[in-house]
Design goal:
Four copies of one chain form a homotetramer.
Chain A (H helix, E strand, L loop, with lengths): L2 H6 L11 E3 L14 H11 L6 E4 L11 H14 L5 E5 L5 H13 L4 E5 L10 H14 L4 E5 L1 H4 L5 H7 L5 E6 L4 H10 L6 E4 L5 H7 L3 E3 L7 H12 L3 H21 L1 H11 L16 H12 L5
Parallel strand pairs in A: 1-8, 2-3, 3-4, 4-5, 5-6, 6-7, 7-8
Helix pairs in contact in A: 2-3, 4-5, 5-7, 9-10, 10-11, 11-12, 11-13
Chain lengths: 310, 310, 310, 310
């Protein structure tokens, strides 16, 4: 029904394989809150050494709501330029309105994104029922020249993309999969089950339930913690896909608290602090995100040390 | 501590009086989803005949998250141009980042806004504690050349500006008041109580609790329903401020269901439909907001007719 | 349709007038967690001096879920015995099952209750829709020989009795009113509005929104804080019903924080501690309710002193 | 520290092995809402043929909040009498107060329960923090002559037993494990991880996430759906514990929708209806639980047929 057919001709035969681990990269800022492209590039060089499937740019951890549209596109260009071409670039292009999402999606494709990650609009949450969300995503997928990955992140949006909407959208040839950050494993299993005929690909949206998600049929993960412990998450992936569940379990368990610390408990400022500890550039956050207090920094450190990571 | 001191010299003596009723105006769109300035202007001419204290432009009902920054500013200019100068223009200038909010605030002031309404940032809701929100609003208020009104709208943001943050911010000479759309009347009473020495002005954010808010000390209301039943809400104001509580109660009660219909229950599409019924231009919504279904239209109609408004 | 018709013959002409203030009395326990009837009686003698309309026995603050059925009935008997006959005794008789509620209601009536307060069953909250709740309350009201007051307390039950259920139940001749502890003032106004033909009586379930509830049409309040500041709440009632709203507002505002402290913030242990400070017997709580920590006691004291009550 | 030491002498060496599948049995009622012991016994005979580890009596699906204390004990006696002695009987003995829980626990032990399942008290949810809950469970475990299993079921109680409380309680020699019905798989993994030195046993509280729970380290499940599809759940257990994850996944996926139907979506009345379809006695529910509507019955049927179970 739209542009994507003519330009790329995706069919189920040629669907992009999303399986693997992706860090949703943080955006380092200078002390003056400008995007620090130098530090970003240094991070990218290090990430290129880790067996990631690709990178997510402008996921929630990238502080994308704090970037201008120009900055959002510019960062994607910088990543694409710097990253080996065999690594996928999945770019967040979701906006509140359908028209803005369509426009940004095209810019992201032009900037070199291999796929776009489109978050649920959420401001009018009372009206964002399946009908509205299906309409939104179909319009975006129809017009996009690159494949679309749905993105449900209720902790930020207050909204879970309903399963029936996912099932309906999975039938669209330009919608490849779902990043589910809600972590309801029953729901993830159900989505896999109900979309099994569409070769729909589900990615776990957090490291805390990555192994369980693999267990019920997910094909990969977009995990904030991969900014810090990327090799370990790729190792967890390898253990899961090769069926070495006992080893996987032991590793998974040690990742739960560090992951909670850099996401739900202490957020992006903690992620950036932990990146600094592990040899990456985190940098400052943009206001109104605040630096960690001393007590928070201690808590963060404890969540890594008590699990043997520091 | 900032720009606003020098340029306007607000002191407690000269504080802008916010008391009264404001419609948070809807933005009419054409069938192609462009801003329909012609229809907007016709609405403004009608609103000028109603004893409103002023208008809120880019409140939640204005679909501001669906407008570009340029459109947001342009609409404020159009309103200021068209509206008699004795009517206040309060412009929504809240963005997720502090820096974007500061920039848009200045554009709104330059576009003719008498005050800005600044919503709580909310995407990283887990990190938006009092510390972060106080820092955000102080930076904005310090730099703004026009007075700032705080805006708490948990139904959309998933976040209630904490009372202790409001109390702290009320001490800032460039923060005049709070639009509270949460509707917790105990909280509204407490805010009035704890800011009584600062001459802080609280506005009810919805018509459903307007009378109760006056009762506990609010000075006015920003009410979606004022787009439809503006005269009636100004009449309710008059009854409250003159102490005619029995008449006020009878009128208030008839407004609860129509108000719920155009806000919590059926949202902006219902507000725009009701505007059409009552002689204003509602127009289409931008996608992903969907037109009302037939069943929803019937429900909307019932909420007006059963209370004697149609 | 049931027993109550024959035995008492309530008609709308003879409906019990519920208007006024009620403390939902605390149950003092000994150090060994036995009901301390001696201390209870001393409290009752003091309450008899305050112009309360009556007392609620076995409301949430009475720790009724921690009492055996025998204790629940025994306490009501003790209260009825001790209290002047012109004071109403409203006894909590709600249980999870309809049959248990019916049985306890009869025991409460036999023990001397003038009316029963019946809380929404809540354990199977997903199934407690309007259909189930209407059925439950009608069966109870049909069989009860004393009038029934509905009780909605979402902070404890996780469930708000839906407005449509209240409106339906208000038509039952043996259902007199609603104690609403949720505090949504828009909802309270709507209930008053939609039941105006049934002479249905709404009681505010907390002191924090008592004045606002009067303002929108409530006829009284069942307020935990009345255990501590009973005279002051009766004075607030007097100011509201005589239309002295400015004085009412000043008094109401000073009650919000003490009320929040003994309810939402610090709960029954704080209520009992405050009772001790103000010359009543609070006594211990039953486990698992814990005594206040020192920090909590300080916070409680501050909420009273900063409002001029200590 | 209490009775249980002397009488049973549990040590970590002799800890009761909880691993396996348990139906939390439904309580069949007659049309007059009396416990139907005849039908109960017939169900038990059928359950005895299924390789369950044991039965849970008075779990949420047993409508225990609708039973009198005498009925609760009587049903346990009936189950113990009828069930082969190699099957465990785990009896729900949780009440709101600590003292009532202690008393009922002893009655359950005397009635033949091998262990008790103790739900979190929840009425005063604002006060049920880790401090209160730890105190409660320690007192119960100290005095109980049979081992205690913690029970967290937030959909009914509005309360999740905090992980730090679980970790603390796992050190008590008479607290064997946790039934977790919340289904947060990250939390379940973390509990397994943080209690690994205590040989603490975690049971999944619902069939929807049974496989994922095994994957992260749970040892069994207490699953409403086992009342209906007991053999299938025991087969799923076998596949998980023998590491046949691909087969497990295919089976697990077909169980998600039937499980949701008899729990979260349609509740106990649906569970009882499905039992009738599959050759067991469900019987009526006690009021206020209502029979399924026709539309609900259709939905229930669809959730079984579309997954190939009917």
């Amino acid at each position: 029904s739209g542009l994507w057919r003519g330009t790329r001709g995706h069919t189920s035969a040629s669907r992009l394989d999303l399986s693997g681990i992706y860090p949703p990269i943080a955006t380092p800022f200078t002390a003056r809150e400008e995007v620090d492209y130098q530090k970003l590039e240094e991070n990218l060089h290090k990430y290129a050494q880790i067996p990631f499937k690709g990178l997510v740019v402008q996921g929630s951890n990238g502080e994308y709501p704090y970037l201008t549209e120009d900055e959002r596109v510019e960062v994607v260009k910088a990543v694409r330029r710097s990253l080996p071409s065999d690594k996928l670039v999945m770019a967040g292009s979701g906006c509140e309105s359908t028209r803005a999402t369509i426009q940004l999606t095209e810019k992201m494709a032009a900037a070199g994104a291999d796929a776009v990650l489109v978050v649920t609009p959420c401001f009018y949450k009372g009206k964002m029922d399946s009908r509205a969300l299906i309409e939104h995503f179909i319009k975006v997928a129809d017009s996009s020249s690159v494949p679309v990955v749905l993105y449900s992140v209720p902790a930020n949006t207050g909204l879970d993309l309903p399963v029936d909407a996912v099932v309906r959208l999975a039938q669209h040839p330009n919608i490849l999969g779902l990043k589910d950050s809600g972590g309801d494993i029953t729901r993830i299993g159900l989505v896999v089950h109900k979309t099994s005929r569409q070769d729909f690909q589900v990615l776990a949206g957090s490291a805390g339930f990555l192994m369980a998600a693999y267990c019920v049929g997910a094909v990969g993960g977009v995990c904030a913690l991969a900014n810090v412990l990327g090799r370990e998450l790729c190792e967890l992936e390898r253990l899961c896909v090769t069926g070495r569940w006992d080893e996987a379990r032991a590793l998974q368990q040690r990742l739960i608290e560090p992951n909670a610390a850099v996401t739900r408990k202490l957020g992006v400022p903690a992620l950036k602090q932990a990146m600094e500890w592990f040899g990456f550039h985190g940098g400052a956050c943009r206001s109104p995100l605040q630096p960690l207090t001393e007590a928070e920094t201690e808590q963060l450190r404890r969540d890594f040390t008590s699990n043997g990571w520091m």
